[in-house]
Amino acid sequence: MTNRLSSEELRQLIEAAKEARSRAYIPYSGFGVGAALLDGNGHIHYGCNVENAAYGPTNCAERTAMFRAVADGHAPRSFRGMAVVADTPGPVSPCGTCRQVMAELCGPDMPVWLTSMKGDVTETTVSALLPGAFLLNADEAAGAFSKGEPTA
Ligand SMILES: O=c1ccn([C@H]2C[C@H](O)[C@@H](CO)O2)c(=O)[nH]1
Fold first, then answer.
1. Structural domain boundaries, residue 39
2. Does the keyword field hold Lipoprotein (predicted)?
C-alpha cells in the first residue's frame, strides 16, 4: 500500500470528521455523522449528513464528503483515506449505500477509519466493508473523470 497516512495526518483526519459532524443537518433523527476524506493533494473534504422532510433524499456524511471531493475536481480513486465518526457505543458502521459509493469512488484498498466520539478507532478498507462490490469497469470509469483543475 502506497502513501500511508502519518499518525499526524490520521489525527487531523479524525479531528476533521468531528468538525464536520458538528455541521450535520439532522432535524429528524438527531443522529449526527461526520466524515473526512483526504485527497492526493493533502486537502481534506468534509462531509456531514443532511436530512430532508421526505426522508429519502437524506444524504449520509460519507457520501457528502465523496461527492464534494469529486465535484471539486478530484479524480475518483485518487483519495488516500476517510475517517467517519458518530456518537456510537463503538466505531460507527457505514450504511450499505455509502459502502457501494466508496467501492466506486475510493477503490478497494483505500483505508477507512471508523471511529466514535469517545475515541474508538478501527481501521478497515473499502473492500473489507463491501466484499464483492458490484462495479462496472470502475477503473476505466474513474480514469475518464476529473479533467478539470481541482478547486479545493
Ligand atoms: O454511516 C452512516 C449512517 C447513517 N448516517 C445518517 C443518515 C441519517 O441522517 C442518520 C440516521 O440514520 O444518520 C450517516 O450519515 N452515515
1. 7-143
2. no
